[in-house]
From TrEMBL, chains A, B:
Gene3D superfamilies: Aldehyde Dehydrogenase, Chain A, domain 1 (3.40.605.10), Aldehyde Dehydrogenase, Chain A, domain 2 (3.40.309.10). This is Aldehyde dehydrogenase (NADP(+)). Pfam families: Aldedh (PF00171). The keyword Oxidoreductase applies. CDD domains: ALDH_KGSADH. It comes from Nocardioides cavernae. The keyword Oxidoreductase applies. It comes from the Bacteria. SUPFAM superfamilies: ALDH-like.
Length: 499, 499
């Protein structure tokens, strides 16, 4: 479908190998697109969802073919993708993201009168989106970054992931149909295929105002660097790398240890372990119950079979990461499953001595993307806390605990909430709910900007900035900040939110 | 008072020339300080305000001596400073900045149950603050950056401005007394004196989590670069450089042109023009009424006298900037006042041809900090729009207009709101109200991060990030997200704010 190294879908089916044409079209579309009313913009997001659904009989098999992921998983991802778009349609219609604040004039204030000052959020401008290999739909062409940027009023230029170019193209065509049917400018959405150079060119383009990225640490940091070299710096929201520590507290081992170990291995091996939130590091109490957990985990993973990884490159990186772990003194294999083909490597659980976390060595703490878990034993929470504090920033941190662990868990929580974007109890980090309270983010290197989330409705705030309007005549005020409040927004008046 | 190159006030009066000691103390204080309740933290901010007021008979004369600014202005700044601290105390007590979101569990949802997910904002960590030369109180040691970072729950390390070290030290001691009386850890606030190297060391310190800066473009960019070179990148909020374009529309010239011109010169020369929001560039219609405005502006500035600038270095930079303007072909002096001493240079208004804005030359568009204004004539708004679009990002953009200018003003507004953090009508940009709707920010190079403001209550959001709590047992939940809502916060339940 896409034979050229680079192609653009920008309103028409004509393909131009030209990033600058896409960003110029985005700039040309910006004024009209950001001027859409909440209703118009919401209807457009819903139209995108409907067009994807209408073409799902073509999209699903293409995504299965390109990603190697099972059809059930891809079908679920279509639902997640359209659900995200509809969630953001609801957010836009409701309007709280506009953050309207009004400090009315105080003409009689002494010693100086106060001007009338009104604030709203405006979109940043054209956004470049880089989709992920592991979610060809939900974190890709029409994924969370695209949906939240479009919701904020920003035109979007997607650089399609080379692991699923044809899926990306089909989705891009669906979005383009929604753009056309909604009467929006063609440049509201563009799709570019290409390699690393194309991505660098897109981020360096002076017309791009922000970047959303989901992928590897190396890829994310390259874009962060490219952005830092621009004359005008821009925000880069790169979701990159996380080993998602899990702490099992002693009480959690008093129940069915084997079931807990199986659940751990289930989360570890889900989708070949190809999730940003894969539980790569587990802290386990020393002692007999811990030994029993480890034995059960070893048995569970030994019975697990490899699954086709997304790309040969990802499988190679997994082979290299596991070889490095295996070759490190002190690390032993707890259990290893079976490979199921050249790019379907065996899942594996290692045990590593805690000392490997303390030294200036990233063998254990670098993410190995795939179904490889490392277990580290600990004696008590006092000795565990400095290990946790020494970890890099994470997307998630998990605690398994019962009521008897309350004291230990209380000591962990303040450390974990500063280390991760999401703290969860008695579950597994894989599975990221799309909702209003979700945070899929976290301190570096989990992301390049911890002040945000790439999943959930708060993600819209990444792509806007505040503007104040001082003594702007009523006839000229933007609708969001007008006295007659035509969009029915809940406003902050003199610091207090309207009821 | 401060003979050493570097000094720290951190709970005691002992002075240690050691940035690392200050940041280590901040880290040590973070857990206890961020655990304060809204009431405790608000009371602390109010105690800081009270301690500054209690010592104002010492602080005011010291600030007058060090800054050369008149006593009335400094007295006003004390009120602005304590007012800001009390505003943030109110923000903290009210609690909306915590952004609480709760998506309750849906155990019966098909195909998968939904976990209980709750979100709140947590403080980023120790913040480094660099005060401004031109506001020795309101944008300095206890200024807006410090107040908003403390309000967010972040310990603060201030690098005092070398232009007012003794004022800074007095204010730092007032804050330290409030820290002690409030029973907070000493490292909640530290004050360091030093030069550029000290500042670089502070920003490079791995314990610093964010930076607030108000000052020159050169100084701000140096800190941005220092932050980009860290292993772990951090947000840098640098408010740097703006020429604050003013557009006079034809209708505004139909009234009292001389009064308008005098008001312009009044804003231009206020405080020797040493404001970030000084109106450095004014667009004036061609034609007779514009000629009359220019003549009146020339007369007004000719009658104005120079005032002592803040430092010899600032006066030197003003001399160099005005020499560059004066030496540029096509630029003419419209009017020039009189100098009042070596460091009290003459205010001046220039006229420059519009072509100088179009070429790749920053002579006219670089900020000249001080009372130097450039007037550019235009024929119609159609020719003006590309000039405005070509400008760099600004803190403010001003329009003078009457009802007859509505069409022109409507065309300007969408351009100006993308160019500046604040758009104002029929006033002058100097004078930045401290309130809830204010934005003192804007696209680069006005600031290094347009997603924020350094004045007004929204500034608190710069120093926090979201964390999600998934299925965290009730006994362990932070107070902000507990079901019993002990702080009486207004929460977003399943996407909808509580009434």
């Amino acid at each position: 479908m896409s034979d050229q190294a680079t192609s653009i879908i920008a309103g028409t089916d004509s393909e131009q190998p030209d990033v600058a044409a896409a960003t110029a079209a985005a700039v040309a579309a910006f004024a009209a697109y950001r001027a859409t009313t909440p209703e118009e913009r919401s209807a457009f997001l819903e139209a995108v969802a409907a067009e994807i659904e209408a073409d799902k009989d073509a999209i699903i098999p293409e995504a299965v073919r390109e990603s190697g992921l099972p059809e059930g998983r891809i079908t679920g991802e279509v639902g997640r993708t359209t659900g995200q778009l509809r969630m953001f349609a609801g957010v836009v219609r409701q309007g709280d993201h506009l953050g309207v604040r009004i400090d009315p004039a105080l003409p009689d204030r002494a010693p100086l009168p106060r001007a009338d000052i009104r604030q709203r959020m405006v979109p940043l401008g054209p956004v470049a989106v880089f989709g992920a290999s592991n979610f060809p739909l939900a974190f890709s062409t029409a994924g969370g970054d695209t949906a939240s940027a479009l919701a904020a009023g920003c035109p979007v230029v997607v650089k399609g992931h080379p692991a699923h170019p044809d899926t990306g193209t089909l989705v891009a065509r669906a979005i383009t149909r929604a753009v056309e049917k909604s009467g929006l400018p063609a440049g509201t959405f563009s799709f570019v295929l290409g390699g690393i150079e194309t991505g660098q060119e897109l981020v360096a383009d002076p017309r791009i105002a922000a970047v959303g990225f989901t992928g590897s640490r190396g890829g994310g940091l390259a874009l962060v660097r490219a952005a830092a070299e621009r004359d005008v710096p821009i925000p880069v929201y790169a979701e990159m790398s996380s080993i998602n520590p899990v702490v099992v507290l002693p009480g959690a081992l008093e129940g069915d240890v084997a079931a807990l170990a199986q659940a751990y291995v289930g989360s570890l091996t889900l989708g070949s372990g190809q999730f940003c939130t894969n539980p790569g590091l587990l802290f386990l109490p020393s002692g007999e119950r811990g030994d029993a957990f480890l034995l059960a985990a070893g048995e569970a993973v030994s019975g697990a079979s490899g699954q086709q990884m997304l790309t040969p490159g990802i499988a190679d990186a997994y082979a290299s990461g596991t070889a490095s772990l295996r070759g490190t003194d002190g690390i032993r294999v707890v259990g290893e499953g079976s490979a199921a083909g050249e790019h379907a490597p065996a899942p594996v659980v290692y045990e590593a001595p805690a000392e490997l976390l303390a030294i200036d060595d990233s063998t254990v703490t670098d993410e190995v993307f795939g179904a490889a878990g490392v277990v580290v034993r600990y004696d008590d929470v006092a000795s565990l806390l400095p290990r946790l504090e020494a970890l890099e920033g994470q997307l998630t941190a998990t605690v398994h605990a019962t009521d008897g662990d309350v004291e230990d868990a209380s000591a962990l929580l303040p450390v974990l909430e500063l280390k991760a974007g999401r703290v969860l109890f008695n579950g597994w980090p894989t599975g990221v709910e799309v909702g209003h309270a979700m945070v899929h983010g976290g301190p570096y290197p989990a992301t390049s900007d911890s002040r945000s989330t790439s999943v959930g409705s708060l993600a819209i705030e990444r792509f806007q900035r505040p503007v104040a309007y001082q003594d702007v005549p009523a006839a000229l005020l933007p609708a969001a900040v007008r006295d007659d409040n035509p969009w029915g927004l809940r406003r902050r008046l003199d610091g207090t939110l309207e009821a």
